[in-house]
Amino acid sequence: MTKESMIMNMPNDPVMLLSYINTMLRDNYSSLDELSSSMGVDAEEISSRLEAIGYSYDAQQNRFI
Question: 21, 36, 57, 65: most buried by Cβ count inside 10 Å?
Answer without folding.
Answer: 21
